[in-house]
Here is the input.
Amino acid sequence: MAETHSGAGGHQSLPALLHRNATLYRDKPAYREKELGIWQSWTWGQTEQEIEALALGLLNLGLRKGDFVAIIGRNRPYLYWAMVAVQSCGAVPVPVYQDAVAEEMAYVLEHCGARFVIAADQEQVDKVIEIRDQLGQLEHMIYLDPRGLRKYDHSKLHQYSHVQDQGRAARDEYLPELKRRREALGFDDTCVMLYTSGTTGKPKGVVLSNRNVILTSKNSCEFDKLTVDEDILSYLPMAWVGDFIFSIGQAYWAGFCVNCPESPDTMLTDLREIGPTYFFAPPRVFETQLTNVMIRMEDAGRLKKWLFDHYMAHARKVGPAILDGKPVGMGDRFRYWLGNLFVYGPLKNTLGFSRVRVGYTAGEAIGPEIFDFYRALGINLKQLYGQTEATVFITAQPDGEVRSDTVGIKCPDVEIRIADTGEVFYRSPGVFVEYYKNAESTASTKDPEGWVATGDAGFIEPDTGHLRIIDRAKDVGQMADGRMFAPKYVENKLKFFPNILEAVLFGNGRDECVAFINIDLTAVGNWAERNNIAYSSYQELAGHPQVMKTIQSHVEEVNRSVAQDEMLSGCQVHRFVVLHKELDADDGELTRTRKVRRRIIEEKYADIIAALYDGSKSVSTRTEVTYEDGRKGHISATLEIRAAAVVGERQRMAAE
Here is the structure.
């Protein structure tokens, strides 16, 4: 077939790629889902039939071209099919974060004017019903799991399988119209609308075209040589651009198999059973897995612990070099082979990474120590840099050029420039069409020539072409003495320790830096259990004297590391508190993708920050929290303020 449309092979929409895959790979697995402990499987041929039946059913319900359809739920083949069925009808899918509270959901559904909602289960149906009076355009709701919904009013509520049955029954009537709409889809038609995480305000609806999704998927698949034989585990939020590109865009371009876990609770077990060849996770997932490994090692016998420590020390020294194909002596290679036999191989198998050929982390910066740990094991973990507005890919790391301190080189067909302010700009086939109903923000983000402002500060290394991101441009500042303030750099170092789940650094315009720390309840709780320390709440454990002492040792170790970087040595932590509660997306402190909402935290905990700077030894505070059922409440606490040892200029120079 002649290559047209910038190399997309004439396939200008996901429904067109679906038909190609159902023809070329008809009997190859397209989707798997674990249900009741058993893996169910659908081929590409079966997938096309399921999607067509749903699309016909949607036409039967009156879905119009250009309508918006909200899709809410965890990763399931049926909901991925729903997105392509909606596209087949000429409408626009809008995936919504399943853990969004009703208020957040109301904003998205009202903003896009959704006429249809496809929801996973009773929980999601109930949230939509709760906000129904705010949604003037909503006409139909389709649910996947019927449990608990039998006595609901079904005049505008439809079971997913029934919609498919009605579509099959009316096939002769609606198939000509469905074919007409599918064939009319072009490169410049809208493929999906994805809402940003809303780090600094209300989420924005990012409109991505078929051109954005297909060309980006094509280029990224070719970059990493992804084929029809890959297996991925789709477990990240379907409303996040990363999942959309990995689980739909790349899956449809390459034709590989998408595997959906039974539930979030079984994700790690299902990961081991599938053994993906291509894996993607934000840093939080890798941090959590490393924490679990360290906890198990603390509980291990003396011999097992010695083997782990001994061979991991060797792996950190030569593992990345072996992975990158660089020269390593025969003695070191033999020791690494032994380590793989006793430690690395079994550990990778336990983590579910035995078959990973390409692994990526993105979403935010990963701590270099965490990154190096996985590469030392022989896992080809790489970093990419992107955002929703870029259809993910801006830069990525080629095999053999992987480093923890860069995010790689520019992806195929991507242009990058650095402004005088240090802000990174890019232009590519993945650049979004617009922010829906927000021309002002579109114009301030994307100029008439297609250059997009990332909001991140960084620079390109002249000798390698690799991009280095320093921090969010709005977060990078200066200390009172003029030294650079880059909070993420220090926060990531703190989060390397299994005991620390989250850290937030303050210090812009100040003489010194201070920090909030969240303990990791799993890791610290395990320590308490081993040492027969009783506690009744997160707050009590977080304030335990031994926990405070341990966290202080971590902070001081990070200070010694930060002091070695002349440019960022001013970011050492002088004082800190261990917070009495976990930072939570439901409380507005984190986004749904677990990014810190720094400005909101500064405002909400202004009393604690003031105490950190005024020399207080403790601070009493009262904080509003949101419970799982949506009710509001307050918790009060008196927090100890700890001073941490810092490395002065004279000490730093002596150490060097």
